[in-house]
C-alpha cells in the first residue's frame, strides 16, 4: 500500500509540473508572433536625418522635391536605425518636402501614386 501512495504522489507531482510548464510557456512573450508595437509613443513614426516625424491623416496637395525613401522597417522599438526608418510605412515609401514648409517641421509621405499625407516633427506635438 505504501508503494501505491508513493506512485500516486509521483503522478500528482508530475501532473503539477507539466501543468505549470505548459501554463508559463503559453504566457511567454517570446513567441515569433509577438511584437513590441504597444511600446511605441506614436504608431506612425518616420526617422529621417536624425529627426522623428509622426504620420497624420492630413492630405498634402502639393509637394516639392524628393528627400528620401524609407530604407528600414520594424515594429520593434529596439531596432530603431538612424537612417531612413519607419515603424509603419513600408520600405520604398517616398518622402518629399512640402513647399513653404521647413523639413524640420513637416514632410510629405507618398501613401499611393500621387497621394500624400503630412508627417509632422514629433517636437511639435503637444
TrEMBL record:
Keywords: Signal. It comes from the Bacteria. Residues 1-25 form the signal peptide. This is Uncharacterized protein. The lineage of its organism: Bacteria, Bacillati, Bacillota, Clostridia, Thermoanaerobacterales.
Amino acid at each position: 500500500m505504501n508503494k501505491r501512495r508513493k506512485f500516486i504522489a509521483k503522478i500528482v507531482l508530475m501532473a503539477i509540473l507539466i501543468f505549470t510548464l505548459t501554463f508559463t510557456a503559453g504566457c511567454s512573450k517570446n513567441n515569433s508572433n509577438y511584437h513590441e508595437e504597444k511600446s511605441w509613443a506614436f504608431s506612425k513614426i518616420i526617422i529621417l536625418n536624425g529627426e522623428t516625424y509622426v504620420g497624420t491623416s492630413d492630405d498634402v496637395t502639393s509637394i516639392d522635391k524628393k528627400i528620401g525613401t524609407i530604407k528600414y522597417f520594424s515594429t520593434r522599438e529596439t531596432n530603431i536605425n538612424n537612417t531612413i526608418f519607419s515603424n509603419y510605412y513600408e520600405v520604398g515609401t517616398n518622402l518629399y518636402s512640402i513647399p513653404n514648409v521647413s523639413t524640420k517641421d513637416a514632410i510629405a509621405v507618398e501613401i499611393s501614386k500621387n497621394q500624400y499625407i503630412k508627417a509632422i516633427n514629433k517636437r511639435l506635438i503637444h
